[in-house]
Hints:
Layout: H1 9-19, H2 22-33, E1 36-37, H3 38-43, H4 49-61, E2 65-70, E3 73-78, H5 80-111
Antiparallel strand pairs: 1-3, 2-3
Amino acid sequence: MVVRMELSDAEVDRIFQALADATRRDILRRTASSDATVSELAAAYAMSFAAVQKHVAVLEGAGLVTKEPRGRTRIVRADPETIARARRLLDAYTELWHSRIDRLDALLAADD
């Protein structure tokens, strides 16, 4: 079984590098449940506005969130399609490993 990817290797790297940080995962969780401004997000963390802005930029670069101008503010919103594409990739790997384990079980059972 070959895992077919709808994401390039570079996209996969950006997504999972972005998700490797707990703050970014939390920002993604918050923006998946409701839109937020960068200022609203920054208020939730014990770090500077600029640091939160950098975290949002990493998520945006990975395609996990979008920033939409609304007046003088920027609304941060999770991108469910990119999240779904990453999930499908993980599901394909799960299927691959389940298939390999099933084949190994069958080989071991045949030896008995």
